[in-house]
Every structure is written in C-alpha cells, then in structure tokens.
Design brief:
Blueprint: E1 5-8, E2 15-23, H1 27-34, E3 35-37, E4 52-57, E5 63-72, E6 83-90, H2 92-104, E7 108-109, H3 114-121, H4 127-138, H5 142-152, H6 155-179, H7 190-219, E8 221-226, H8 233-241, E9 259-265, E10 268-274, H9 284-299, E11 302-305
Parallel strand pairs: 1-7, 8-10, 8-11
Antiparallel strand pairs: 1-2, 2-6, 3-4, 4-5, 5-6, 9-10
Length: 306
C-alpha cells in the first residue's frame, strides 16, 4: 500500500453535501495541492479530526468550491494510514473536479472497496467486520442495519476468538508436553480437553444458529405467491410494490415465469416471487411455468396462497 488513493465517498446524486476521501502516504501532499485553508496553514499543521474551512482548487489554482477538510493520522483513521476527507457541496460536477484535482497532485482512483480493504490489511478490522461494512451499506431495513452494526462492532469476532483461543490453548499445552517431556509441564487431563471441546462446540452452534436470521435480515424472507390461474397473484404483487411490475390480464396463464422483487412490509423485507398458476395443463410452456412455481414454493420460507 505505497500509493495514495482517492474517491467520491458519497452517492453520485445532487445533494447538500458531498465527500471526497483520500488515503495513503502522500495524503498531506495531495491535500496541500487541492485544499487551501483560510488560516493559511499547511495540511501537516492542521489539527487532526477537526473540520477546517477553506477552498478547493484545481491544479491551476482556480477555486472549485468552498468547503471543509478533515485530516486523520494513521492511528485514528479508517484505513490505518494518513487519510483526509474533503467536504464539498454535493454537486456531481464539483465532486468530479475536486477528485480530478486530487489525481493531478498524485492520487489515483480507488478501486471498489479499497478503503475497507486497506483497513483490513492494516489490522483496523478483521474480515468479518469488513464484510459487515458491505452489509451496513446495503441494508434495506433498520433491523438489517442494526445487525450489521453489531457485527461491525466485533460481536461475532469475539465469539470466534474465544473458540480459537480455547483450541489453541489445548493444542499448545499438548505439544509442550510432548516436545518437552523433561520439563515440569502439567499434562492435559481428558476431562479438560472434553470440557474445552464441548464449550467450543456450543459457541460454534450459537454462531451457526444466527446464520439463517442474518441471511433473512440481509436478503429478505423468500416469499412465494401461489394459487390457481387468474387468482390475483400478479395483482397482489403489483399492489404490494406500488407499481405495475407484472402483466395482469383476464386471460388465464398470463404469468408463465417467476417474477421476483423485494418489498418492505412494515419492518419486514420480503423477497416476493410471483409464479404461474398451478393447474393441470397440456401446454408445454405452461408446464414449465407450473414446475418453476412448485420449485419456488419448495425453496420459499413463506407462501402466500391466493
């Protein structure tokens, strides 16, 4: 990680505020090129983790925008290296110009997820927490966001570490007793090994039990709409979504394939699957649609019978 990266950290849509993030060994030099603090101080002299007002500039010195800059030292940054954030007005043009100016002064375009990758490689977070960042960004319900936040705080990692430490303790003591028989090392009793393994098994089972709930929170409950032809399955799908996603006609068998969409009902995220009407038919295409409907029903956690 010897190069310095930069990227627009906020959504690329008009907004009041937009942020360009910079990280890497040349962060201060890039900031000095792009940002001019009204106090006249250089980036190295700016207080860390404090917003400082100034101007964003092009390589030629033309002012792009007025905004704020925040400097992060390696010990307090997200990535574990020198980093900065430039807070501008949320115009896509402004953000692109600020980013282009950062490239001029030595930064390169960050790849997708590269800031979090650097945080992982520098030891700021483990792999489980890095995955939680993506879950938190993609969260579609409050429960999903809360679950990802707990994972990001290390709730799962601590459980895994307890299992790892317990097994490593057994392994280390076993090898020590075998490799150094002349030393006064107390051998492991079978009961101690059994207790440790049982404790680790229970901990792993508790973690495994959370998998299905976590997957449902992240992806939604797989829900299938089942019924006879023309029962109103596609009409129900459209009503829940709030727009015409599926074709609805008076002709039986209009839906011949599965149609999937996500919808939030209250605080619950449903992954809806509209299906062909289940009935006996000699039509080859309809037969395929009915079989797909049955397959979707077998895979679903919830069925709405219309």
């Amino acid at each position: 990680m010897t190069d310095t990266i930069a990227a627009i950290a906020t959504a690329r849509a008009p907004a009041a505020i937009g942020i360009v993030r910079i990280s890497g060994p040349e962060t201060l030099a890039v900031v000095d090129g792009v940002f001019a603090a009204c106090s006249g101080k250089s980036a190295a002299a700016l207080p860390h983790r404090r917003m400082v007002y100034g101007h964003m500039r092009t390589a030629e010195g033309a002012v792009i925008d007025d905004g704020l800059c925040v400097i992060f030292a390696p010990e307090s940054s997200y990535t574990g290296e020198w980093a900065a954030e430039l807070h501008c007005h949320g115009s896509a043009v402004v953000l692109e110009e600020v980013l282009r100016s950062a490239f001029t002064f030595g930064a390169r375009q960050a790849k997708g997820g590269e800031f979090t990758r650097r945080a992982f490689l520098s030891g700021r977070m483990d792999l489980i927490q890095a995955e939680a960042v993506a879950d938190l960004i993609d969260a579609e319900t409050a429960e999903c966001a809360q679950n990802a936040a707990l994972q990001l705080s290390g709730s799962i990692s601590r459980g895994v570490e307890q299992v790892y430490d317990g097994l490593m303790d057994v392994t280390a003591r076993f090898y020590a007793a075998v490799d150094y028989p002349d030393e006064d090392i107390e051998p492991l009793e079978q009961r101690e090994i059994a207790d440790t393994l049982s404790r680790c098994r229970r901990q792993l089972q508790r973690l495994l039990d959370t998998f299905r709930r976590g997957r449902i929170l992240r992806e939604g409950i797989p829900t299938v709409l089942l019924g006879l032809p023309n029962a109103g399955k596609s009409s129900l799908l459209n009503a829940l979504l709030g727009y015409d996603r599926a074709i609805v006609t008076d002709v039986a068998g209009t839906t011949r394939d599965t149609v999937e969409e996500k919808v939030r009902v209250g605080h619950v995220l449903l992954r809806l699957c509209d299906t062909a009407g289940i009935h006996q038919t000699e039509d080859a295409v309809e037969k395929i649609g009915v079989e797909r409907a049955r397959a979707a029903a077998r895979q679903a956690s919830l069925a709405l019978l219309v």
